[in-house]
Amino acid sequence: MTLIGGCIRRYSLANGDAAGNSIGGPGFRSRALIPVALPRPSSTSGAILCNKWTVSNVPGPQEPVRLAGVGMKRIHFAFSNIMPQVGAVSLDGKLSVNFVIDPISVPDSFTLSAHFLDELEALAAGLGVEISGDMSALRTQADALTRVMEAALTAPMSY
Predict the structure, then answer these.
(1) How far apart are the C-alpha atoms of 48 and 61, rounded to whole Å?
(2) pLDDT along the chain (159 residues), means of 10
(3) Pick from 9, 84, 116, 142: CA 20 to 30 A from residue 56's CA?
(4) Exposed/middle/buried for 3, CB within 10 Å: 0-12, 13-18, 19+?
């Protein structure tokens, strides 16, 4: 959760917003969709409306899991709306993190992958943990994804 919080903090600071107010605001469109998307009574709906981000952490089994005899390699969240939210779930010692972002309400949302990797490196360094794997390859993939998302978000739309 420290990693996700740090990523969101880095994003907010990069956008000149130490308080995180640039994410959603009084006119945040998804708030109007909540009664439609979640029509059942909920004791948490008020909290959801007040938060800029919803972050969920679900520790999963720390050993291999089989489903119908087949080993599961990954597990991901299913999100029911477009509010800014992050889900972190683990399975067999591996962490999967999913971001759901409405690019209209979260400016420069395509920069989150770089902020996530920056925070991962800073957290590992602060804890004295060596990162196994090639961070430069991850950064190359994140940069490519950033370019694709930026192009998609700035392209004119035709109907």
Answers:
(1) 28
(2) 78 74 46 44 48 76 90 82 81 84 78 86 88 82 81 73
(3) 142
(4) middle
